[in-house]
Amino acid sequence: MARAWTVRGGKQGEREQAALDEGLVVAGWESLGDLSDCSALEELGELLRRTYPEEAPRTVRSWTHQLRRFLTMETGDFVVMPRKFRSVIAIGRLNGPYEYRGENPPGFRHVRRVTWERRDVERAAVKGDLRDSMGSLLTISELSRGDAVRRVATLAAGGVDPGYRGYIEPPDGPAELESDVEEAGSRQLTARDLIGLWGWSRRTADVIDLVDRELVARGLRADPHFTDVRMDGIVTVSAVAAATAEADVTGPDSGRAYQDAYQDTAAGVDDGSDQADLAWRIGSLPFVRDVVSIEEQAPLSRAVTRMIQGDFSQLPVVGPHDRLIGVVTWEGIARAQLGRREATIAEAMHRHPRTARESEELFGRIGDVQHRGFLIIVDAEGVVVGILTASDLAAQLKLRVEPFTLLEEVERRLRRAVGCFTVEELRASHKPHMAAKIHSAADLTLGAYRFLIDDDARWAKLAWPYEREDIVDRLKTVSAYRNALAHWDVDAPEQDAPALDATRQLLKLLQVIDRDPVPGGA
User: Fold this and answer.
1) Sign of the dihedral through C-alpha 57, 63, 66, 72
2) Number of Cβ within a 10 Å radius of residue 309
3) Distance CA 242, CA 239 (A)
4) What DSSP line would sit under 299-354, residue for residue?
5) What is the tens place of the pLDDT at every residue in 105-132?
6) What is the model's pTM?
7) What average pLDDT does this structure show over 293-315?
8) d(CA 57, CA 39)
9) Helix/strand/coil for 154
10) How many CB atoms neighbour CB 188 within 10 A?
C-alpha cells in the first residue's frame, strides 16, 4: 500500500523549482557522498556523526531518521512539497529509487525521481489537520495518521480533501510520543490525549507548566499550543528544531539552530516564538464549527431560507475551499431591499467582516462580539472554521459563573445550619493549632463541615432528616470540587459535570433544612 511523505524544497525554496522542472525531490546534506549502500539506521547515524562531529546528538538522530525515510520511500508513494513562497502545494508520486548525482551542485545531489500530478493545489483545499502535518519544517516527514494517504490521493486526483472525523489513537506514554516524532517527523493527537500522557484531564496552570516542561525536556513542541484549542482539538507535536529554526533541518547550520533553540527553550529564553501563557484563547471555546455558509453566486432567497431554517443572524459568504469573502446579515438584507437594489447576495453582503484566529486571546475580541453580535473564525488560509456569537459567550458565562454561585449558596446555608453549635463545638473538629482561629461558623472552610458533622453528638444536635454518611460523602465531593475550581483552568466547568450536579443536589437538600426567612414573617 502506498504511503505519503512531505519533502521540503530547501530553507529558501532553492530546490523547489529544480524539483518541479526536473521531476525530482531533493535532499540536502551536501557533505555526504553516495548513500546507495547505506540505508540501515545505525549505519546512517554513524556516518552523520563522523561527517558532522560538532552537531548535537539530538540533531544527528533527527537527520538519521529523515535520511532513512528519503532512502527507503518506495516507488508509487505520494510526495507532497509545500511551496515556500506561494500558498500552494505540489503533489506527485515517486517513480524511481534513490540516486546520487555527484555532478550536480552541492545540495542537489541526493535525489528521487517524481511524476508531479498537481503542482498548484491551494493550501486552503487541505483541511487544517492535514495541512498542519504538512507544515513540519523537517526536510522529510511521513503523513500517516488521520487517513492521510487516501486524502492526499484524492487531492492528487483533483478532488477535495474529504477530511477525517475519526479518533486518532494516542501513543501509550511520553516515551512513545518522542519515539513517534523521531520515526515519522511529527505526531498528531488531541489536547486531551496529550495532557493525558502525564495522567491529567484538566488544563490548570500547574498542568500546563508541567506538560510544557516535559515537552521541552524531550525536545518537543506542540503546534498550536495545547491551550489554544478545545480539549478534543488536534495539535501537532514535532521536534523543537522543526518548530523553531528558520532553516529546515538539512545541514550543519540548521543543526546549530536546532541546538541553540533547544537550549534557549530549556533555559526559558524568549526566542521570539509563541510562548505558553494563561490567556483564555478563542480556540478553547465550544463555538459552532460546522458552519453553514453560502456562495456569492447563490440567490439571496437561498440565504434567507438558510438563515430562517437555522435561526441564524448571519451567514458567511465563501468562495472556493470555504475561503471567507463576506457575510450576509438581516441588516444587510434589509438595506439591499429598502435601497431598491438588486436582490443578490453581492448587494446584501458586507465584504470585510471582522475575523479572528483560534489562537487569539478572547478578552481582546469580546468588544467585536458585543458590537456586531458575532465574530467569524478563520484559519491561516482564510478558511472559515467557526463562528463565535454573543449567545456562545452568554453560555460560557453561565458555565463559568454558575459553579461559584452554587458553591457560595451551599456555604451560606451551611453556616446558618450549624448556627446551633457553640464555638467550642466548632473548634472540636479542628486540630489545636487551627482551632484557635475559629470564632464562628464564618471561619469554617467548606472542607471543614464534613468533619464537623461526622460526630454522633453533633449530628444528633443538628437533627437533619438525612443519613449522616451520605451527607459526609456529598460534602467531601463538593469541597474537592471547590478546591479544583480555586485554580485557574482553561476548560469550562462542564468537564466536571458530575461534581457540578452533586453541588446542585447538596444545595437542594440544604434548602429543605435551612429555609430563607419570609419578609414580614413572625
Assistant:
1) negative
2) 9
3) 5
4) BHHHHHHHHHHHT-SEEEEE-GGGBEEEEEEHHHHHHHHHTT---BHHHHEESS--
5) 888 899 999 999 999 999 999 998 899 8
6) 0.73
7) 94
8) 19
9) helix
10) 25
